[in-house]
Specification:
With about 300 residues, the protein is of the alpha/beta class. The chain has 2 domains: about 180 residues, 3-Layer(aba) Sandwich (D-Maltodextrin-Binding Protein, domain 2); about 100 residues, Osmoprotection protein (prox), domain 2 (D-Maltodextrin-Binding Protein, domain 2), CATH 3.40.190.120. About 50% of the residues lie in helices and about 15% in strands. The chain has 15 helices and 10 strands. The strands form 3 sheets. A 5-stranded mixed β-sheet has the order 7-6-8-5-9. The longest helix has 25 residues. It is globular.
């Protein structure tokens, strides 16, 4: 009697295990992304690439950084593209100055403990940067952030457009000002959505704007990026990150995303961003065309 009950229990557990395993294998791959153009592009490229290789995909490409990271740690998002510097400073609270290679190695080790695998980094380094209109930068003799700091120290006033996240993040505005020993007057800091800083600078509403260095609007709008001559900003290599559990069950996904990552660099991603933000092409069409051009579709 006891033997029959035990056998029945083992059989039941086996069936449950089989069902769970089957559901995991057959379920959709959840692809995440953040709220700006570059992230929506790589999320869409990932979704199209995985679908073309037989995977079902659930794409969620309009999330904030912290929400997206938490969703991956909690198993709600399987794969997305993250920036090495963001993981180093924002998620892992490492403030040491590290090289690009050191940064990648450090976060790979730390995030592995949280069930996250960093795949191969691309050559696209989308770091934060400060930009000015070219004519005004030349007029004021500003090439670097140190030049900006000197002008502010001598009494020159600049209105600065920043997104809310940079205003408060640990690698953001306050530590930047401390590193370069200057400070914007509070009345001259204008917080707005990150996508609007470019338009505000172009239209002369502000003198200086926070930008992302691979954004296609920088050359299109005639901006110049100020040299980060003290190396304040860490490397922000755009890299696919995937839940380790999912990668082990679907090793081909790692191969596909590593191949896609190898096709991306600063010039390429800036061009793709420009086609969307300046040329007004759709995320879907730009993504498909790039994958086809790269022989990935």
């Amino acid at each position: 009697m006891i033997y029959r009950m035990l056998a029945s229990l083992i059989l039941s557990l086996g069936i449950v295990s089989s069902v769970v395993g089957s559901a995991f294998a057959d379920g959709p791959i959840v692809v995440g992304g953040k709220k700006f153009t570059e992230q929506q592009l790589v999320a869409e490229m990932t979704a199209q690439l995985l679908r073309a290789n037989g995977y079902r995909v659930d794409k969620r490409a309009d999330l904030g950084s912290s929400v997206l990271r938490a969703a991956q740690e909690n198993g709600q998002v399987d794969v997305y593209w993250e920036y090495t510097g963001t993981s180093l400073i924002t998620y892992n609270k490492i403030t040491d100055k590290l090289s690009a290679d050191e940064t990648y190695k450090k976060i790979s080790e730390l995030d592995a403990q949280k069930g996250i695998t960093w795949l191969n980094p691309s050559k696209a380094n989308n770091t934060y940067a400060l930009a000015m209109r070219k004519a005004e930068a030349e007029k004021d003799g500003i090439v670097s952030i140190s030049d900006l700091a000197k002008n502010i120290e001598t009494g020159k006033s600049y209105k600065f457009a920043s997104n809310a996240e940079f205003f408060s993040r640990p690698d953001g505005l306050r530590p930047l000002q401390e590193a370069y020993k200057f400070e914007f007057e509070r009345k001259n800091i204008v917080r707005m959505d990150g996508g609007l800083t470019y338009q505000a600078l172009r239209d002369g509403q502000v003198d200086l704007a926070l930008v992302l260095s691979t954004d296609g609007r920088i050359p299109a709008f005639g901006f110049v990026v100020l040299e980060d001559d003290k190396g304040f900003f860490p490397s922000y290599a755009l890299t696919p990150v995937i839940r380790t559990e999912v990668l082990k069950a679907n090793s081909k996904i790692g191969e596909l995303l590593n191949t896609l990552s190898s096709k991306l660099d600063d010039e390429t991603i800036a061009g793709l961003n420009s086609r969307v933000d300046v040329g007004r092409e759709s995320i879907e069409n730009v993504s498909k065309a790039f994958l086809q051009q790269s022989s990935l579709l």
